[in-house]
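Hi team,

Filling in the usual template for the complex we talked about on Friday. All components are listed, including any nucleic acid strands or ligand strings, so the model treats them as one assembly.

SUBMITTER: L.P.
PURPOSE: interface mapping
COMPONENTS: two
RESIDUES: 954
SEQUENCES:
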Amino acid sequence: MKRRTFLQLSGMAAAGSALAGCRKGNEKLIPFLVPPEDGATPGIADWYASACRQCPAGCGILVKVSAGRARKVEGNPRHPINRGKLCPRGQSLVQELYHPDRLRTPLKRSGPRGSGQFVQISWEEALATLADRLRPLAPGDAGKSAVLWTPPLQGYLAELVARFGQGVGRLQHLAWEPFAPEWRRQSLYGHQGLIDYDIENTQYLVSFGADFIDSHLSPVRFNYAFGRMRQERPTVRGRFTYVGPRLSLTAASADRWLPARPGTEWTIAMAMAKRLLPQVEPRVLAAAGLDTAELARLTEPYSVAVVAELTGVRATDIEAAVAKLVAIRPALVIAGEMLVAQRNGPEALRAVELLNLLLGSVNTPGGVYLTRPEAPGNDSSLAELQQTLATLQAGNCDLLLLQGVNPTYNLPPGFGFTEALAQVPLVVSCATFLDDTVRFADLVLPDHANLESWGEAIPSAGARGHTVGLLQGVVKPLHDSRSFPDLLIALAQTLGGATGAAVSEKSFLEGLQQRHAAGNPARWNELLAQGGIFPAEAAPPEPLRQVSLGRPELPPAADADPDFPLQLQIYPSSAFHDGHGAALPWLQQLPDPMTTAVWGSWLEINPQTAARLGIAHGDLVEVGSAAGTVQLPAFLYPGIRPEVVATPLGQGHQGLGRYADGRGVNPLQLSSAPEGGGGFPVPGTIPVRVRRLSEAGELVTAGHPEGSYRRELLGI
Amino acid sequence: MSEATDQLRWGMVIDLDRCTGCGACVTACQAENNVALVGKEEFGKGRNLHWLRVERYWEGEFPHVRARFVPMLCQHCADAPCEPVCPVYASYHNPEGLNGQVYNRCVGTRYCANNCPYAVRVFNFFNPEWPQPLDQQLNPDVTVRSRGVMEKCTFCIQRIRGAKESAKLEGRPLRDGEVQPACAQTCPPGAIIFGNLNDPDSQVARLARSPRRLRLLEDLGTEPSVVYLKGGGHEHVG
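RESULT (copied from the run log):
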């Protein structure tokens, strides 16, 4: 072969191989020799749908996963509750997953109770210990009982726990956590169904202590709707009035704030009802079992002038709000936790909700929608909680199994929970962090984080049809943890017998798949990809049945007790909710919206009151009640009644990881035994006294108390 | 390609009537951009690293008091006061209207932060720490900044780049709303809108023409790319 021909041929061969290299299907620069197991490509993120269980709202989420790690959580745009939006707590789910102080293995107590000394044990040993305690509870045998305490459960998990309990025998299930929507049982609407406020289509919104932007039922859903109420309609801007003693984050967005004395808010509703009543046809009221004449008698004393006197709000302001409610349709009235926790809470709640009936705003656009629940909730009431605590205290309980609750933190000392624990031979805690309660446990079982768990998140508010969000384990479990339902299944297998027969599924995931897409893997994948089962159209609304009002009472006159002249309001922090968010550093560093305070707790006090007591911004003050004292930095807060002070719930943990441990104050120490209504463990307000201690309050805020710039300068 | 680039001018509209001050944007930004934690002590010294903060202003006195919220982030000024003072050209202007920050040029003079009237530039006084396994949450699309470097809001430039690349691969122009910074994506009341101001039909351009429009400290001549829409509702004030 000539040299020239050789070069021509080799050139053609090279061109040919280059062409072959261009063919489709070989797009990766360096193909894998061994493809990764999970099919993920390095540098390319996958998005998995799941659901958030940080609060009862049950928002849908999408999780960005690359290289097997969860990187970012976004809202799921297809989920009817949050429509692609998410709150700071949902955003912080990755920090729960990757928290450096998560429980990693089963632990057994090695020191005295509460010392926090534990030794590592195996799952086999942990399961055997638990099973030994559960066996003697079999039905028929006489003897002591066991208590399983969880937050309110829904759907498949609720059913699994019920079957497990029946199999075991004398296992009592308590489903209670603070701020669970259980309080709605006392509502005028009188059922535990789905409730949705059509805020986005309303023209006039009145909230009585419902902080629907911070914490009420479904904050992301209502925050989304609120934005649309303001500016989504071309010619209408919805108006909003807030009634309550403190300018909360929600109240800050109101056009009008009526700072009524705590416990008197409902009288404003009475003044509104009085004015609305003549507009309402008697048959509408009769259909709900109400008598117009009797209602007229009930509301008769509440003229605007009288209500102004009772509430301490200027009569012209009340009159303006009443006049708007009479004139504008559709209008919507919401009552919430801060109202219900008052001593007269249940009656006040019903008095306020009566307004929606008078406005014709039940099951109509711009009103409140009620839907029959798919399955009854298993929420326990405060009375049931107290009965259970009595059982514990009497020494009639052999085993206390806790999952996802932190009663040592969330119950005021007056409930005697910690003392009751001493009467229980074996306390088992299934948790993600070594929190206030887990410290007192004998056996600690690490639970999966939200992003590792499979399950369901069924919202109880904010939807108009049965909605099931599916939790997907988006990453492999990091530690030697087990999800709570899988723990129950493993226990049932260990126990065998009746329990083994009652709980026969191999794993929770398998059961979940069976429940939603039996024998249809394609359908299951489709459900997982969209994030759950969402109603195609709104379910038919549940008509309002016969209602009973009750008669609200006025609280005793303010400043009745000269020793404790101020009223303390404890509100759920928007970042920490009932306190479990405090473990996460992003939430610790998120400035509180109203005070911009970070990494701690504070006492909100009106500047006039502070001046009278000689307290300056940032001073350390002592807050004392009949039950005890705490020390807090003072924050001069213009948006609060002069006789009211307030502090957020959420800080002051003992345990719960390095970011929360020993930080701030748990204000529940100031509460004595429950006297409030509404099923809340803390009364709406606690009589306190406040005195200055020193200037070293160590308050850290992101902004200047007034804001960094003068507002006029910015032109807003 | 240069034609397509010229057609882009990124801008943001923040509707103060929708904003409820909830803070979801603050955490979303921190999560997306690997913004470090500083702890209480450093926070107290003003060394917070948040790229986006929500200012809260009190107005009036009890009982006629109200609080107003203003989300504050880099305004991506067309005439940015931070740019000409940088001795090493770490602060620069990109053709799409972004005010960029080149971390590996920055020598930490902090002149830019001094000159920013909105106080949105933050400085790394320390190397960031993420106790293991907290570091696994870090977003691989965003550089982790080290000690001595100035940083600030980028309008989530990694998301802009990502969207442009996928549009290019699919051979189509960018769609309106395709690029969502983390703050806008998560904002529950939908107060933050992002997009191309040069496209007169984009949502952001339409909103930016609203009669409620205002730009912060506009008389300084900074020409910000962030347009705020005034909140309504002064019923009970005054």
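MY TAKE: Chain B touches chain A through 72 residues (CB under 8 Å). The domain at 2-229 of chain B is CATH 3.30.70.20 (Alpha-Beta Plaits).

Thanks, L.
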